[in-house]
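Quick one: sequence plus flavin mononucleotide SMILES, need C-alpha cells.
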Amino acid sequence: MSEASDVFPAIKAPDTTAPLLEAIAHRWSPRAFLDKAVPADVLKTLFEAARWAASCFNEQPWRYCVALKADAEGFEKLLSILAPKNQEWAKGAPVLLLSMGRKTFTHNNAVNRHGLHDTGAASATLAIQAASMGLQLHQMAGFDADKARLVLKIPAEFEPAAAGALGYPGPASTLPETFQKGELAPRPRKPLGEILFNAAFGSALKV
Ligand SMILES: Cc1cc2nc3c(=O)[nH]c(=O)nc-3n(C[C@H](O)[C@H](O)[C@H](O)COP(=O)(O)O)c2cc1C
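Reply:
Sure thing.
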C-alpha cells in the first residue's frame, strides 16, 4: 500500500509534517476504479468500521443507502441522483452510496446540531478502513438531495449528507480525458499554522 503504483501514483502521497498511520496517508479520492466487484465480506467490514464512529449522545445518526453494480436497478437509482459531471466518472465505480444523518435525537426529539458532523465522522472512518484494505471512497457533494429523497424514499427526519463512489482504484488512463489531469495532480493542504490555533482564534498553536 505504501509503494507508489498506477493505482496509487507517487504524486498522491501526502507531504506530511508528521508521521501518520499509513491508511490515513494513503486515503485519497480517485475517479478511476477497477472493474472489480467489492466482495460482501469486505463491504461488511467497511460499514462495520463506520458503525464504530463516535457520536453525540451515541445517537449514531448515520444511515447509508448502498448499491452494487450487480444490482443494476439500485445502481442506476444512485447514479441518477449524482450531478452530471460526477456521473461521468462515478458510473465506473463498483459501489455507489449515499450517507444521511438523522436531524433530531431519538431520546428527546431535540434538534441534533451534530447529526451531519457525526455522519461525516462515520464516513471518514469507513474511508480510512477502506484505504487500509486497498479500496478508496470518493465522497461527493455534487448530488441532488431532493431527488435523493424521492428516489431512495428517505424519511423527512434524515438529511442527505454525501454521495460516495467506492471500490478499488484504477489507472488514470481509464478515465475520460477531462478527468485525467486531476487524477494525477498533487493533494494540496493548508499548512497546520492556518488551521490550528491556541486559545485565541487565528493565533497559531506552535507544534
Ligand atoms: C463532502 C465532500 C464532497 C465532495 N464533493 C465532490 C464532488 O461532488 N465531486 C468530486 O469529484 N469530488 C468531491 N469531493 C472530493 C474532494 O474534492 C477531495 O476530497 C479533495 O479534493 C481532497 O482530495 P483527497 O480526498 O484526494 O485528499 C468531495 C469530498 C467531500 C469530503
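The radius of gyration is 18 Å. The chain has one domain: 10-195.
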